[in-house]
Amino acid sequence: MDTIRLAIDVEGGDFGPEVVISGILEAKAGSLIPFVPYLCGNKDRIEQIIVNSGGRDLLKNCEIVHCSERISPDDKRSSAWKQRADSSIIRSITLQKYGIVDASISAGDTAILLGAAHFILGHTDGALRPVLAAFLPTARQKPVLMLDVGANLECRTEHLVSFADLGFAYLSKYLGRSDVSVALLNVGTEPSKGTKTIISANEILKEKYNSYIGYIEGNGVLKGYADIVVCDGFVGNALLKSFETFYILAESVLAKDATLLKKFRDHISVIDPESYGAVPFLGIKGTVLKAHGGSTSRAIANSITTALSAVEKEAVWPKNMRPKGN
């Protein structure tokens, strides 16, 4: 089994590099797939955190990529990839461009990460816009792929169709099936329901995919009626974050009953948002995953697991298309 090389933005996320490094140590301890992390950030601080965490072995089995710049709130997100080229989030992408790593992970700003991935790695043929895709658990014991979940807040008809194309190609490869079903998120299932954009996309998708099942409402997503659910990034992000709060709500309701709470955690951990860790950008010439800004160490560890699986399966970008490096 080949060792996978991962660039990790250590400075990204709400809780600082200590949490990211702790997540890397957790992933190292539990991963069945060998990997070498390339830690992008302040070298002195990274080394000190590793030593303080009792992870001296990590120093022997990682590469530290010193980054001299930081992105401030005053920087324009659209041009940060060019103006702050030596920041940790940007370096995690450029390492992939030059074939030094196989994939990149960041819990940093979505718009900055997307811009860097788009302009540094480029977009795939036929992809009008890169898109964020997230797996969600369903009542049918199989995941549903929802996209977009935050990269594109305003979309035209052709964008929704392109998202369906990207999702279909990704999931078909990920599952090894060519019959994955596609649905379009809408406020109803009647043909006349929805915006002009959604109605037009529906007409195109009906002709394009034999496995297209039409509209799906929000209450049908987690019921598992479709393998892929297409929507714009504004709706997808709002829906995703609503789903993420269910686990927290259920825990708070059951908090007074320790027995029930334990059973809940044992059997419903699949709906814990920390369990999936990160989601990939599709439509990019590379493997780039966005972790939640509020990721804990466990979520970072699961982000790494997700990235390793994506690289191993070549689900996002094929191995023979990766830059070879020096």
Report on the architecture of this protein.
This protein is of the alpha/beta class and 326 residues long. The protein folds into two domains: 165 residues, 3-Layer(aba) Sandwich (Rossmann fold); 144 residues, 3-Layer(aba) Sandwich (Isopropylmalate Dehydrogenase), CATH 3.40.718.10. 42% of the residues lie in helices and 16% in strands. The chain contains eleven helices and eleven strands.
Keywords:
single chain, 326 residues, alpha/beta, Rossmann fold, Isopropylmalate Dehydrogenase, 2 domains, eleven-stranded mixed sheet, 11 strands, 16% strand
**Which residues sit in consecutive blocks of at least 5 with pLDDT less than 50?**
none
Rg (C-alpha, Å): 20 Å
Question: How would you state the average pLDDT, rounded?
Answer: 88
Proper CATH architecture of the largest domain = 3-Layer(aba) Sandwich
Main sheet strand line-up: 3-2-1-4-11-10-5-6-9-7-8
- Termini, distance in Å? 21 Å
Helix/strand-derived category reads: alpha/beta
| CATH third-tier fold name of the largest domain | Rossmann fold
In DSSP terms (H or I, runs of 4 or more residues), the helix count works out at: 11
Give the topology.
Blueprint: E1 4-9, H1 17-30, E2 35-41, H2 43-52, H3 56-60, E3 63-66, H4 80-83, H5 88-97, E4 103-106, H6 110-121, E5 131-136, E6 144-147, H7 157-175, E7 182-185, H8 196-208, E8 212-216, E9 228-230, H9 233-254, H10 258-267, E10 278-282, E11 288-291, H11 297-313
Summarize it:
The protein has helices spanning 17-30, 43-52, 56-60, 80-83, 88-97, 110-121, 157-175, 196-208, 233-254, 258-267, 297-313; strands at residues 4-9, 35-41, 63-66, 103-106, 131-136, 144-147, 182-185, 212-216, 228-230, 278-282, 288-291. With 326 residues, it is an alpha/beta fold. β5 and β6 form a beta hairpin.
